[in-house]
Known about the structure:
single chain; alpha+beta; 3-stranded antiparallel sheet; elongated
Amino acid sequence: MNCKIIVFILSIMTITPVMAQQKTVQPLARVTKVTQTAGRDQLGDFAPDFARLNDDILFGEVWSRNDLLSLRDRSLVTITSLISQGITDSSLTYHLQEAKKNGITRTEIAEILTHVSFYAGWPKAWAAFRLAKDVWNDDIKGDDAKAAIDSVASQREEFARSMIFPIGEPNTAYAKYFIGNSYLAQISDSQIPFANVTFEPGCRNNWHIHKADNGGGQMLVGVAGRGWYQEEGKPAVEILPGTVIHIPANVKHWHGAAKDSWFAHLAFSVPGEKTENVWLEPVSDEEYDKLSVE
């Protein structure tokens, strides 16, 4: 029996170092030092001790322990706590801005506030949503942006298949004279130069004039989709595939897509003497929204 006990003890002594060797040490997470001066900036003279506690302890020490709890998670906890107390003033706005900087997306903040509303109360959530909308107003991230880009690209490709002429490239050279996005494909540069101009839904060019001392003007031929042509002081004319529009020289006018349709037309410049394109003011939303087929 004594021999068996000795053997058992020796076996444990042999195994223990092996187990100890298998233990791994987790690397320490990198700490981001948080610097805050709001306390001293706003209350340094009036309440210096409070300012120190706010800047040096709350932010300088507690928020800086982000190796134990990430800045993103600390933002989540903080905004949840503030909303739960009904605090929807500038302090919540600040922490929403910090939450965005710390990686919380617009989709996530919407879900966080929705979740919080069931525990903190509906009116508090409404107040927080109003602030969050301003903070994330111009921030379209990830799948939202990809879906928006893919949707426009898909519509453009589908429209391109509906006509025989190419859409071309974004019309950047004349973009300042358009509301919305347009595309330009030069079809011919010799004999009779002309181009195919494509408009996204709602896109139109500014009022403009094709000036000429003699001759001049422009001719449009509808290719695909639905659009509008209007001369100053006259009703708008609907342009469909095959519609031909003769634009006299020295007449103020505009043309573009219908609100709910892509549109493309061929544009032919009519030769003339001392020709010049004069671009004028944009077509207002009020003018555009009143359009109807006369």
